[in-house]
Amino acid sequence: MENIINALNIKKQYGDQTALNIESLTVKNGEIFGLAGNNGAGKTTLFSCLLDLIRPTTGEISIKDKPVNKNSEWKKITGSYLDENFLIDFLTPMEYLKFVAGSHDVNSNDIPQMLEPFKNFMGEELLNSKKYIRDLSTGNKVRVGITGAMFWSPELLVLDEPFAHLDPSSQIKLKNLLKEYNEKTGAAILVSSHDLRHVTDLCSRIVLLHEGLINKDIKTSTNTLQELEEYFSVG
Ligand SMILES: Nc1ncnc2c1ncn2[C@@H]1O[C@H](COP(=O)(O)OP(=O)(O)OP(=O)(O)O)[C@@H](O)[C@H]1O
């Protein structure tokens, strides 16, 4: 299967500190890729370089063979939610979703049907809430952000710690939603998480970052949760 992401010799330096140092990383079409690592390991830095939110000090990341800092084609096929900065505070959830739809050339008549698979995760109440996003709870902001990243069916989905801030029911719903989305659309999904059980349940492959370096690259199996627990118990 073809690679949707190719990263080569990616280094991100902050003064003397190396936040990221990845010789080579590829992600295949359709892969559910998990990124784990302790605080400061470089997970958000990697996703930020991938989405061209920060520039690596050296090296290049490409989506579908086009460097993300030189060509913006990737934006048409990439849905992402890293943090609250992805939202628009003065819009209601539905106004925000309509805004996202508009930026991806989705016909507004198609929006209700496209939101159908997300109703269970987002909940009717939040979907139709007249509150501005700035007045929502942190968990509800996350639900709006993730739905906004996905409902227009991107081929590549990038979510930074999507399970954090969600209540247990929403975490389980999200896990099922992501699995179903991957099966239905064949999209590649990149997820970072501190929840070892969720990444193991969800991801077909898990990369462990430590101080900016790839320490392990694991194909998920029945032993993976135990392997991760042992790895992090000494970390
Ligand atoms: N703007 C910045 N200036 C200086 N150092 C930074 C900056 N952004 C990130 N770093 C450093 O880069 C390293 C990697 O941070 P990053 O946020 O990518 O880690 P993370 O794996 O996402 O951590 P967490 O699990 O806590 O979210 C950390 O040591 C962090 O302090």
UniProtKB/TrEMBL annotation:
Q: Which GO terms describe its molecular function?
A: ATP binding
Instruction: Write the record's keywords in alphabetical order, separated by commas.
Output: ATP-binding, Nucleotide-binding, Transport
Q: Where are the transmembrane segments?
A: none
A Pfam family reported for this protein in Swiss-Prot or TrEMBL: ABC_tran
Signal peptide region = none
The ABC transporter domain extends over: 5-228
Q: Which domain of life is it from?
A: Bacteria
**The keyword Transport appears for this protein:** yes
Name of protein: ABC transporter ATP-binding protein
